[in-house]
Structures are given as C-alpha cells and as structure tokens.
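User: Can you help me understand a structure? I only have the sequence.
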Amino acid sequence: MIRCYEDFGVIHENVPLKAKDEGVEDNFELVFSSQEKAIVVSVLLQGESGERLEEEVAELESLLRTLGVQAVGRTLQKRQKLTPNCYIGSGKVQEIKELALQKGAKLIVFDRNLSGPQVRNLEEMTGLVVLDRTGVILEIFSRHARTNQAKTQVEIARLEYLLPRMTGAWTHFQRQRGGGALQRGMGEKQIEIDRRRARDRISRLQKQLEQIRKEKATQRKSRSNELKVAIVGYTNSGKTTLMKGLTKSQIAPKDELFATLDTSVKTIDPRTRPKILLSDTVGFIRNLSHSLIESFRTTLEEVSEADLLLHVVDVSYAHYEDHIKVTNSVLADIGAG
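Assistant: Let's start by predicting it. Here is the structure, written out as tokens:
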C-alpha cells in the first residue's frame, strides 16, 4: 500500500506519485518501514469459525514478521455484517485508536481487504496508517522480487491495487497538512493526473510483461522433449527444501512467507533420458486477490504447462486441508487444476 505520514518511513497515498528522477520513466514506489509496531484487527461474522479466524490472524502476523513489523496487539469484533463506511463500528475504531496509542503502534492492519474509502475513513478517524492483507502481501512481493519478470508483475499488481484508492486522497492531504505548498482546489486535478499516469504505467508494463511471456514460452518450447514437474503448494510449506533435496542444488530455503517469487528450474538427474526438469515457483495463500493471481500468470505458466504437479502439504498445520483447498482453487483459476 502506498501511504504514510512524514515521520513514518513510508510513502503515503496522500503524496503525489513521482518518478525517482526527472526524465526517468515513472516509478511508483511502494515502501514499508520495518521495525514498526502494529495492531491487528479481525472481524468474525455470523456463521464463521472462530478457530479458523484465529489461524488467519496468526498467518497475518507471520506476514508482518516477514516485513519486520511487530504485532503488539489484537482486536476482534463480532458483527452481523460489515459497515460500508469504515468496515467496523465507529466505537470499535475509537477503541483501536486508544489501544494503538497505548502500545506505541503506528499501523493498524486488517485481516481482510478494505476499499479505498474505508481506508481513508479509518485513517481520518484514527490519525494512523491503515493497511489491509493485500497491501501487506504486495510489500512482501516487492521485497522478494529479484528478476525483471517478478518486479514487473509486482509493479502491475501494486498500481492496480492503488488506482481505486486514490479517490479523495489529495483533499485529505490538504486537511492533514494545512495545505502546505499545495494550492487550494488542486486535489481532484492531481488525483486525475496520478490516475492517468498510473494507467499509462500499467499499459507499458503489460507490454513489457507480454514480451517476457513470449521469451519464456520460447524457452519452454526448447524443453518440449523433456519431462516437466512443477512443485506447487501453500507458501512456506517446504517446496524449496524438497527441490533442494531432489536436485542436490545449492538453493537456500528460508523459513518465511513468499521467500520464492521467481520460478527456478533444475534437472533432477542429468543422466536420465529424457531429462526430468523440476520447477519451484511462488506459493499460494488464502484470500489472495484475483488481481494478484492475474499479475503472476506469466510466472505460473510454468505450472500450467507441466507434465506433473507435485503438491507439497505441511500437515503440521491443524487445518492443512484448507491449504490444500486454497492451492487447488488457484490451480483451477490458472487452468492447471
């Protein structure tokens, strides 16, 4: 997510989008400060399982730890339905604000995804930075992307995530900063400028990604006579560890979520004929937005075109069946189920 205050090491959605350098192609930054404290907010709707919600919240806290953010408090609200204005009740918002001040937290992180207006309203009511699950995942993706392909896919996903969250941001900025160097009435104009630049940037990136896709397709075609096995599964389930063991490669597995974003292809045993190629790619997670899946479709084509899918499951999780369902659902979305 692209938002923050001047005393917090992040770019706020209320700040105009800028290129890094004059004359350089637009670069919309998504920056997130580490070693910060956060309050995690969850909602239990009627008919939902409290035990499953507990696991989802624990997973969100694990995502935050991957960013170096410490969850110093949790708050849960049971509701019949969500409110369109601020997602939860206004009384609960005030309670969260007081808890954050008490704990020294500058972040409020919601387990579910929020709309642009909900984020803006919550920030106005609390004076704190509000993030949702997708915003946290996007920042992890941004930090872990290494190749041009992964970086391009992540930037497309970030911009598509940001676009609907620009509404009213500049007028909110003027209220917070008392106008500063901005002229009155320029807010809505700046929003339209930023939106247009973001759409233009997305268009350019999609063309770049299409070229990358063609190059990857050519590479896969050159391996058409080889057997292709793709390792799939929930994030941090041990896929890279398995690949290291099977291929005897020097890959260094990491005990963190989304450590792998770029597809890695290794030969199991060079002596076999035909060769058996093993690929390790991005893991899946619950409540992954459709736009994120679409952005990584190029990477996941390695999975779609595999001769065999090797599904890795960590059965140490109490509800590992949920992880299996999530993986199968994403595979079905990309036509590999």
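Now, to help you interpret it: Residues 187-222 form the longest helix (36 residues). The domain at 37-204 is CATH 3.40.50.11060 (Rossmann fold). Let me know which part you'd like to focus on.
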